[in-house]
């Protein structure tokens, strides 16, 4: 059985473009969450370098790499 009697709107619906904005609230939340993760990582890395410097070798970083990572500025200050 075919749909020869079905209205054309059901047969060939045009592709609908939702018109999403490139910068949505969800994207902003994601950006803020990622910044918080990176800031927390740098804080923990700083604590580790200060309290347990021998653990830096265990995660495969050099002291110079750790200092460079800790010194990174937040994305809005770059």
Description:
By secondary structure, the chain is an all-alpha fold. The chain has one domain. 56% of the residues lie in helices and 0% in strands. It contains four helices and no strands. α2 (25-51) packs across α4. The model has no long low-confidence stretch (mean pLDDT 80).
Q: What ranges have pLDDT less than 50 throughout 5 or more consecutive residues?
A: none
| Bulk shape | elongated
Gyration radius from CA atoms, angstroms: 26 Å
Order of helices and strands: HHHH
Number of domains: 1
The major pleated sheet works out as: none
Give the strand content: under 5%
Helix run count: 4
Give the integer mean of the pLDDT values. 80
Query: Structural class of the helix and strand makeup?
Result: mainly alpha
DSSP helix fraction: 55-70%
Question: How is this structure best summarized?
Answer:
By secondary structure, the protein is mainly alpha-helical. Helices cover 56% and strands 0% of the residues.
Describe how the helices and strands are arranged:
Elements: H1 8-11, H2 25-51, H3 54-58, H4 63-70
Structural key phrases:
about 80 residues; mainly alpha; 4 helices
